[in-house]
Amino acid sequence: MDVNHLRAQFPALAQTLGDYPLCYLDTAATSQKPKQVLDAINHYYQQDNANVHRAAHQLSSRATVNYEAVRDDVRDFINAGQREEIIFTHGTTEGINMVAHGLTAQIDPGATILVDTAAHHANLVPWQMLALRTGATVVPIPLDSHCRIDQQAYAQLLQQHPAIVALSHVSNALGTVNPVTQMAAQAKAVGAITVIDGAQAIAHLTVDVQAIDCDFYLFSGHKMYGPTGVGILYGKYAQLDRLTPLLTGGEMIKSVTFEATEFNILPNRLEAGTPPISGVIGLGAAIKFINQLDKAATVKRENELLTYLQQRLLALGDITLYGAHDDNIGAVAFNLADEHHQDVGILLDQQGIAVRCGHHCAMPLMQSLNIKGCCRASIGVYTNVEDIDRFIDGLISVKELLL
């Protein structure tokens, strides 16, 4: 599909900010939404607005059918073994918290929980809280000099027979791709439960959870051209069925008396209360949008764009790249000389250029890099060469002003 035709499907990209057309390079934080996603959400609210599962009337029936159809779409999208292994959440963060809470009874005092140093806070703090509840210890998996997970150090840490190994499929801050299939197999060999944060991978890679063979895999709709407030917790059925529910009430209940409560079966057992129905409907539309793309061509073009972005940054001079490798996807992290990243981001914004600046919810990673934060430019299917050129031109003017 021609990139200009593709961009035309994203209404937000047509806006101007002051005197400048929007140059959106913050897709890793949240992607823009194509019209078919917006239309699907609008249609639900205008025609099918009702709660799912609980009513006999036609609106509820239509909403339920459409809602549950997305569960099948997600199962196919990530090649899960069965639809009951797909749990709708409000995002990756909630999903990881659900897993961490749900495993509490299974973790013994003194157990080890391994977390990669570049992990998003959402894949670190829930494990710290689990450790506080159980007496376990969270141990970071070090990075090597190229900001990759140190595989030798990882192999040594596995000798401690950790109870849980929590990994990022793709680094939120750096775009580094981790060999999660290999690492999950190593963890499984020592009896560890494996949890993969796939939030940054899902829009760029073909994810096959059965091939990865992890116990849990999580991602968010808003990173993959879908709405905010919806996400997916995938888990192997046996693992999901052992989780203690984080939230109780509503559809997750099979029967209730004042003496006792019996929980429902999966997937309802882990979906308490009114779910993010419109978000799920929008997520289904986002999956259809992604499936309509030529995947091989899209990956090739994104790789070429990212390489072009890295090359132009390096040619600019006074730029430090963090974790920039040939197999990075989606994002480039950088700093301009010794200038504060927020200053750079604000000056770019004044030219209509949107990038992310800060610690990217990865403060331990920033500490390991000996920096307080950095800028991150990230791309999506709608990003074109003109976006990269505008960004570089904007950065040149920032450099002339600050240096």
Q: Briefly note the structural class of the backbone.
A: alpha/beta
Biggest sheet, open or closed, and with what strands and sense? Answer: 7 strands, mixed
CATH H-tier superfamily of the largest domain: Type I PLP-dependent aspartate aminotransferase-like (Major domain)
Rg estimate, integer Å: 22 Å
Function: Catalyzes the removal of elemental sulfur and selenium atoms from L-cysteine, L-cystine, L-selenocysteine, and L-selenocystine to produce L-alanine.
Catalytic activity: (sulfur carrier)-H + L-cysteine = (sulfur carrier)-SH + L-alanine
EC number: 2.8.1.7
Cofactor: pyridoxal 5'-phosphate
Provide a descriptive summary of the structure in words.
This protein folds into 2 domains: 3-25 and 294-397, Alpha-Beta Complex (Aspartate Aminotransferase, domain 1), CATH 3.90.1150; 38-291, Aspartate Aminotransferase, domain 2 (3-Layer(aba) Sandwich), CATH 3.40.640. It has 14 helices and 17 strands. The mean pLDDT is 96. Strand 1 (16-17) and strand 2 (20-21) form a beta hairpin. It has a 7-stranded mixed β-sheet, with helices on both faces. Strands 13-14-17-16 form a 4-stranded antiparallel β-sheet, covered by helices on one side. It is an alpha/beta fold. The longest helix is centred in the last third of the chain and has 22 residues, at 295-316.
